Amino acid sequence: MKKYTSPSVLTIAGFDGSGGAGIQADIKTFSALGCFATSVLTALPVQNTQGVRKIYSIPEEAVADQIEAILDDIFPSAIKIGMVHTPQLVDIIANTLNKYDKVPIVFDPVMVATSGHRLIEEETITAIVQRLFPVADVITPNMDEASILANMQVKTLDDMYTAGKRILDLGCKSALLKGGHQETDIITSLYFDESGKISSFETEKFQTNNTHGSGCTLSSAIAAYLAQGKNISDAVSLGQQYVFEAIKSAKDLKIGKGNGPLNHFFNPQKLIIHEMV
């Protein structure tokens, strides 16, 4: 009797009870792109579309236990790492993942929420750079996060070129600098690959408040495409297109009183299945 399997993607990230960002956005994205979603909770932010009210920590040991429980059973085809807000949590995640075979890893260095709320402790940045940058195949900072990582203001496209090169020098394999905060009609994001080659992606900017979770969604989409066997460059390109369509199809949607969510299910795929050898 034939047996089948599906590309699975693990998200290691924070919670969002309002359903637009964090683990909830990741699970929606993986599912919409035909992958099986698994998850590990790193933090419990109390938030809605209007902002983050408080962040409750998850014990580091509980995070390690969660990762081991999933990897021992449903080993992922790719991993997305999101909110990691303490140095201890960085060490726990890096140490636990290092016990297992390497799979493609997308790291979204979540430091600033869409609302502008700072989500990360200062001393965590050094730990992230030292422990998570080397294991990630691509990192996906927005302009605010690039400013923190590159230690400079990032307001323009020229700033992004400079910041991207500085971030690569920190030791990551490749980086996608997201241009969503640009005050222009066309948004340009820049992908810096392992060789230093820079690719630009241009998309139309919509007048909408519904961008809550767009960064989580993009990193998850890239991870989902990597799980399907795409190379990083193609996964980045396809991920950008997915987020563009998710924002476009939700631009007039009214959910919540603040920054509303994307429409992750504008064109959902059936679960991808492969015959097991």
TrEMBL record:
Q: Which domain of life is it from?
A: Bacteria
EC class name = transferase
Q: Which classification does the entry list for the species?
A: Bacteria, Pseudomonadati, Bacteroidota, Flavobacteriia, Flavobacteriales
> What does UniProt give as GO cellular component?
cytosol
Q: What is its EC number?
A: 2.7.1.49
- One GO MF term: ATP binding
| Keyword Kinase tagged | yes
Task: Cite the InterPro entries for this sequence.
Answer: HMP/HMP-P_kinase_dom (IPR004399), PM/HMP-P_kinase-1 (IPR013749), Ribokinase-like (IPR029056)
Q: Which UniProt keywords apply?
A: ATP-binding, Kinase, Nucleotide-binding, Transferase
Query: What is the name of this protein?
Result: hydroxymethylpyrimidine kinase
Outline the extent of the Pyridoxamine kinase/Phosphomethylpyrimidine kinase domain: 16-263
Pfam families tied to this protein:
Phos_pyr_kin (PF08543)
User: What is one GO biological process annotated to this record?
Assistant: thiamine biosynthetic process
Q: In which pathway does it act?
A: Cofactor biosynthesis; thiamine diphosphate biosynthesis
